[in-house]
């Protein structure tokens, strides 16, 4: 997890909940301590056997970090990640996974923590960066790869960037987001929580990890009142919404940062046709009889090995995604309505929550590159040769109503390059339009440009080409070397390192709550972004595609409302009970 120019030694942390053996990492040249790392910290009961496809359960109240003999327990090795389908994608050598660091087991609900070393923390504790890794709910590779090791944050800019970094493994793909009517019925048997198995298990995992962090980060020198959650934009948006609307609960998220995404489409219901079809197909492929009672089918499916289930999922033309799970669930039926009408923004404003949100320039290049890889999911783009095939491909992700509306907006008599159109639509809908529409919905709720900080990255360092395929341009995931200063190990020149520092330095101030005039983000109007331009310069400018993408956001909204109301525009004045 660290580069070879470091020195490591054990470090014992003693807390009121027992002792941990972690790793202190120092600069090999200067011997200056950089950070202390504690990994494989359990934050929930293992979700295995009968707990598969159920909400995570909290640890017992008397749990301790120490071992059974009250001696320090070893927290130096990394934990397993959720079993997932690893695509055969070659983004470049910089993203090559370590061969032994990501074992896959369903017992995967662990937290990794990085703490600044070599100095006292601020009054109240270090700010906390709770990082959500992932980009499509199908994989959670873990903050255990070289390209996301935060060492350069601590090495190069420790004065500007002091923070605790927390990352939690969570369930993804089939194990994190299988949903069906059978699982909803199965959950009725749990009297203490009748919505324990309705779907969105990965989202529940992340929430429990945030709650664990809020309760325990002070033991590591962190400030529980300064928890900043972000990274994967869609997952962050769901967590932010849940935190804002959860009844009878004090909000835990102080600030949120959404990288290249948010939420723009209401997920399908847990009992709808797509989840039902997924569940039925899996049962058929593992020889579970359709005629059995639902509780028997669920019980038998829980007994199938994770290896066998992954084999089945690998050949299915589908993805496993968040669902609307209704009362008591994670995603309410009025999720998008509360975003469109500004109520989410109103609640965040009342709680004094700040949001940082933005995107990168070449999302379409990323989608095009990924869908040309040999192990891509769904229909091959090469097979798209007509408008109908484009709509069919879009229906893997969107409703037929929205897919038709998108095809109508983008089709042209002068362009029948259907694979290119697909990549363009996905980039605009999943990223560019959703980021801008989400931001403006927050403004609608009363948040200002001091509350919502927008950015755009149009810069790709030349030094990156040796390590990351140039065909990908600069897109989500590939901007990680910028936010993590990780390009230091990916061939950034001295000038490129300075460009990154100039752009990203205010982000550290955002994390610690410095939003004064001198904070340095620079945006004043709602349509302005802090831009890392193609030449490496940093400027505040009008977002050149803001109006166009807001128009697409409105089209997405109207298509969803037509589907809900059968053609009549729904009223958005006031929202019924969310939970």
TrEMBL record:
Coiled coil: none
Superkingdom per UniProt: Eukaryota
InterPro entries with a match to the protein in the record: AB_hydrolase_fold (IPR029058), CarbesteraseB (IPR002018), Carboxylesterase_B_CS (IPR019819)
Residues annotated as domain Carboxylesterase type B: 11-510
Family annotation (PANTHER family): CARBOXYLIC ESTER HYDROLASE
Name used for this protein in its record: Carboxylesterase type B domain-containing protein
Organism: Passalora fulva (Tomato leaf mold)
Lineage: Eukaryota, Fungi, Dikarya, Ascomycota, Pezizomycotina
């Amino acid at each position: 997890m660290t580069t070879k120019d470091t020195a490591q030694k054990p470090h014992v942390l003693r807390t009121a909940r027992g002792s941990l053996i972690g790793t202190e990492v120092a600069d090999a040249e200067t011997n200056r301590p950089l950070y202390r790392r504690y990994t494989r910290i359990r934050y929930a009961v293992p979700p295995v056997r009968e707990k598969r496809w159920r909400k995570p359960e909290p640890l017992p109240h008397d749990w301790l970090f120490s071992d059974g003999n009250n001696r320090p327990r070893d927290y130096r090795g990394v934990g397993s990640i959720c079993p997932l389908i690893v695509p055969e994608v070659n983004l470049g050598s910089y993203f090559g996974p370590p061969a032994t660091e990501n074992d896959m087991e369903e017992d995967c609900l662990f937290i990794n923590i990085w703490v600044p070393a070599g100095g006292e923390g601020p009054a109240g504790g270090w700010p906390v960066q709770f990082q959500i890794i992932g980009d499509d709910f199908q994989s959670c590779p873990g903050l255990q790869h070289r390209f996301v090791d935060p060492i350069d944050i601590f090495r190069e800019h420790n004065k500007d960037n002091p923070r605790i970094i927390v990352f939690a493994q969570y369930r993804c793909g089939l194990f994190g987001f299988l949903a069906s009517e059978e699982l909803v019925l199965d959950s009725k048997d749990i009297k203490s929580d009748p919505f324990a198995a309705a779907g969105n298990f990965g989202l529940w995992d992340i929430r429990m990890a945030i709650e664990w962090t809020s309760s325990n980060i002070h033991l590591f020198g962190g400030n529980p009142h300064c928890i900043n959650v972000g990274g994967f934009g869609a997952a962050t948006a769901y967590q932010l919404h849940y935190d804002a609307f959860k009844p009878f609960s004090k909000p835990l998220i102080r600030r949120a940062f959404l990288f290249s995404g948010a939420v723009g489409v209401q997920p399908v219901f847990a009992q709808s046709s797509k989840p039902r079809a997924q569940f039925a197909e899996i049962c058929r492929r593992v020889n579970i009889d359709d005629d059995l009672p639902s509780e028997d089918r669920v019980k038998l499916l829980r007994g199938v090995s994770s290896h066998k289930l992954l084999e089945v999922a690998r050949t299915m033309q589908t993805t496993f995604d968040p669902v609307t799970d209704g009362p008591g669930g994670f995603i309410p039926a009025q999720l998008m309505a509360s975003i469109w009408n500004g109520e989410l923004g109103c609640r965040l404003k009342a709680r004094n929550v700040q949001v940082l949100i933005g995107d990168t320039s070449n999302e379409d290049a990323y989608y095009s590159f990924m869908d040309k890889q040999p192990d891509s999911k769904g229909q091959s783009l090469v097979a798209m040769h007509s408008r109908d095939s484009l709509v069919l491909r879009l229906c893997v992700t969107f409703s037929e109503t929205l897919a038709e509306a998108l095809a109508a907006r983008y089709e042209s008599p002068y362009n029948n390059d259907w694979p290119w159109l697909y990549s363009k639509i996905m980039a605009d809908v999943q990223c560019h339009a959703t980021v801008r529409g989400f931001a403006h919905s927050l403004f609608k709720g009363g948040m200002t440009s001091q509350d919502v900080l927008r950015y755009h990255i149009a810069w790709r360092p030349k030094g990156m080409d040796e390590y990351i395929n140039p065909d990908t341009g600069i897109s989500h995931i590939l901007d990680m070397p910028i936010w993590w200063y990780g390009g230091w190990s990916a061939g950034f020149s001295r000038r490129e390192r300075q460009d990154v520092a100039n752009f990203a330095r205010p982000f550290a101030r955002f994390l610690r709550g410095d939003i004064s005039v001198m904070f340095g983000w620079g945006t004043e109007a709602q349509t302005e972004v802090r831009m890392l331009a193609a030449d490496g310069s940093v400027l505040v400018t009008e977002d050149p595609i803001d109006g166009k993408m807001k128009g697409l956001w409105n089209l997405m909204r109207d298509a969803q409302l037509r589907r809900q109301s059968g053609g009549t525009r729904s009223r958005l004045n006031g929202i019924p009970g969310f939970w």
